[in-house]
UniProtKB/TrEMBL annotation:
One protein family per Pfam: Importin_rep_5
SUPFAM superfamilies: ARM repeat
Protein name: Condensin complex subunit 1 C-terminal domain-containing protein
Biased composition (Basic residues): 1-11
Length: 307
């Protein structure tokens, strides 16, 4: 130990002013690095906290439904600042918390507190982060199903923002962006199916068809293809004007494995196969397959579906 102390004194006696400055600079850099790491760890801790809280709220709403709303209302002053947080994770989880109010709290309570979250939901559709866009798009889809006529105008006003999200050049640039985009496509389908009194349905059907097929989000596929099947089965002229497109969309949905047993409770897959079989029964399918330009893999999928 004594030898080490002597060496330290010798080294310090030979240090130049530049050496001392370098040591001080390195120490400052180290301090900044430690401070940054501590800040990151603190933000991660906060995010984990809100993630767990959001999960807890979700399951509590599932169990108690609208009976949980009075307790949720007491927490709104805590949750609402998250909607405008500088941290995108907090914005995301704040939206999910209010999505639960929309889904389980009932339309009257949703309307009562809509001034807290609706503007933030609209703004979030153009958020820099796809995780936030996804949460907002999901919220508008739920609002279409649960909100009723009081939200018809709100959904009509949100529709252009959803369309812009879906049509953005980077809409399918990353996995996260794809997830947000397909949530938005499903939200449009839900608006057109469940709450369309304030929108031009025909104009939006044309746009909707151009977005298909989707296949990544198996939870939303039944809603999207369920509405698509509604249009075909009702002989909507906007859909029947492109029969080859119908064949392509259906076959590619199966080819990309857009469905799973858990989410397809309404057997949308069966409805789509029935559509293909009706075209086969009218001796139209072979020509439509050629017109749709199905490749060998897609043709094999079609053959399997019709067995």
């Amino acid at each position: 130990m004594e030898k080490w102390a002597n060496r330290k004194k010798i080294r310090e006696s030979h240090m130049t002013e530049d050496d001392a400055a370098d040591d001080e600079g390195a120490q400052e850099d180290m301090n900044e690095l430690i401070e940054t790491e501590n800040g990151v760890l603190a933000r991660m801790s906060d995010l984990l906290h809100y993630t767990r809280m959001s999960d807890l709220l979700h399951y509590t709403f599932i169990v108690f439904g609208a009976d949980f709303v009075p307790l949720f209302e007491d927490l709104i002053p805590v949750f609402s600042p998250l909607l405008s947080s500088r941290q995108y994770g907090e914005r995301q989880w704040g939206l999910y918390m209010f999505n639960d109010l929309i889904e389980f709290g009932g339309a009257p309570k949703t309307l009562q507190h809509s001034n807290v979250f609706l503007l933030a939901m609209v703004n979030a559709l153009s958020d820099e982060y796809p995780e936030v866009r996804k949460a907002a798009a999901y919220g508008f889809g739920i609002l279409a199903i649960k909100g009723g006529p009081d939200f018809a105008q709100t959904l009509a006003q949100a529709l252009p923002h959803l369309v812009n999200l879906i049509g953005h050049p980077s809409a399918r640039s990353t996995e996260e962006s794809i997830a947000a985009t397909e949530k938005a496509i499903s939200a449009v389908a839900k608006i057109l199916k469940f709450n369309s009194s304030a929108v031009d349905i025909n104009a939006n059907i044309r746009v909707f068809l151009n977005w298909l097929p989707i296949w990544k989000d198996t939870d939303e596929a039944p809603y999207v293809y369920g509405y698509f099947a509604d249009l075909v089965e009702s002989n909507n002229p906007l859909v029947l004007g492109n029969l080859a497109g119908i064949v392509y969309i259906i076959v590619e949905a199966f080819n990309k494995q857009a469905f799973d047993d858990k989410s397809d409770k309404e057997n949308v897959r069966g409805r789509l196969v029935t559509i293909l079989r009706s075209l086969q029964g009218n001796n139209m399918l072979e020509g439509l397959v050629n017109e749709a330009k199905l490749d060998q893999t897609q043709q094999a999928v079609l053959h399997h579906l019709l067995q």
